[in-house]
Amino acid sequence: MFGHINKLIRVNLTESRIFTENLDRYDLKEYIGGSGLAAKIIFDELDPSVDPLSPENILLFMTGPLTGTASPSCGRYCVCTKSPLTGLWAESHAAGFWGPELKFSGYDGIVIKGRSDSPVYLSIIDGKIELRNASKLWGADTYQTEKYLKDELKDQSLKVASIGQAGENGVLFASIMNDSGRAAGRCGVGTVMGSKNLKAIAVRGTKINVIPAARDEMLKEFLRRIYVTIRSHPTAQIYSSYGTDGIMTMMHEYGDVPIKYFNKGSWTEGIEKISGEAMAKSILKKQWACYRCIIACGRHITGDESGTREEGSGPEYETCASLGALCLNDDLNIIASGNELCNRYGMDTISSGSMIAFAMECYEKHLISKENTEGIALEWGNGDAIINTLHQIGKTKGFGEILAKGVKRAAKEIDKEAEEFALHVKGLEIPMHDPRAFKGLGLQYATSHRGACHLRGLVYHIEQGERIPDLGIHKRYERFTTDDKAFPVIAVQNWHDIMDSLIMCKFAFLPPASVLSMLNMVAGWDMRLDEFLKVGERTYNLKRVFNITCGATKSDDTLPKRFLEEPLNDGGSKGQIVELELMLKKYYEERGWTEKGIPKEEKLKELDLSFTIPRLNN
Ligand code: SF4
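# iron/sulfur cluster complex -> structure
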């Protein structure tokens, strides 16, 4: 088969057993691959009541049919599991080269169950799969792990996905890192990997360097044309020139950048110092691109003069906002050093920055003091406090032991009042976009299957005027309106679920029909656009049903009080709150869900998800 390799690796760590199977038994056209296919496997095989950190939880590493092909911006992979942070569906996607290399080594994905007695790593080289002793590596950071395995296996082209100390220590927002700085960051997927005593997965395929397409010549010609489309998108141009942090100034104008833990709407003097333009003038060394990406949004930055930071992977927008504006820190060097620390420990920069900003607000409100923090003065903008607290979290030492549990649990341990301003949805800390600036984004945060997430439905692009005719989005949707947001939010959520099944980077802003053409050329399919778009609705509903079986209810589809009741006093979104209930009601109706947010039987049948109905009725 073209596109898919058609082989899945199965690993049982408890029994040290490995076998492979082909993908024939899954209808690839129903779920495509990536997180869509992972959702089907998890629904079929995982008891939704399991403790996410028990051996019974399943951890999947998946690629898609476009991964490793000549298609642009398709170098990603995803990790899916039940999240220890939210207790619900988890998926986290990482860029770089690891995904294509897994396919070059001969496999589409890996399904991991059980728990090893002692630390191990998985090596997959040219089809040969082995579990190897990783005891020496336990305690190493992710950069050290990558280097060690390249040396041990004598191949500097090896690609390594690993956890750092955060995943070993049970930090509930631990990430899985690859390519020295690329992260599957969200939902605690690294925590699940650590709970299985699995330190790393090293992959290498030396026989091929691109997955062939069924209609190769046609694809080559097609790619020449879509490169122009990708390069000409205004946001892609900003990402290319200044990295994702290039949007910092523009988003600040909207009142979208979260400042002082979403308490302020304007901070011009600070934003100027942490923007992508500021990075270009100071610590930037060169651009960095994932496998066959012509945008190259990655930033490679200089080391720190004092030697506390190595030259290497630079911070993204989300990190510049979370370790910067959110904490009222305008020092780009602190952000860059904090970014490297998060990468090395292997922990999500969004959640890490959020935990520090939350702690700073607790400190300001005298809910905690230096006695709690082992002497760290958690004052707004204190760079040393940011760095020292990151160390505490990564090591789960001192106050870090509480912060490592994520904001929902930490707030409970600190004080009742802290629970009032602990910002999360379903237990996942909020990304660096204020939903009061884009009301549709508020609906997206409230309904996203992994908790507060901007990437499972980048609807704020629509609220900035972007149109996607293939999805029926023909008109401009104003950012502060609420009565018309259900439709575009659903359309973009479904579309992004398809992209996460393919798996393709969302920064290649291609029309859905073009992406479908590419898929058909690669896989040799003749899928129609309506069938293609239905895949997204199917996988979205399947993940929803999984969450319901895990115990999620309508009451989880909500936002923190700060966004629902507390307007900002300044900035581009001054005076705004999110009127969620009205949007949510329409959203459920348009989704074909009940008033309680449960997919109706006729909707599930229409989507070929009848097999989920008995589980819902249980
Ligand atoms: S746009 Fe950035 S994240 Fe996306 S594939 Fe390209 S380099 Fe990677």
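# post-check
The radius of gyration is 22 Å.
The domain at 245-422 is CATH 1.10.569.10 (Aldehyde Ferredoxin Oxidoreductase Protein, subunit A; domain 2).
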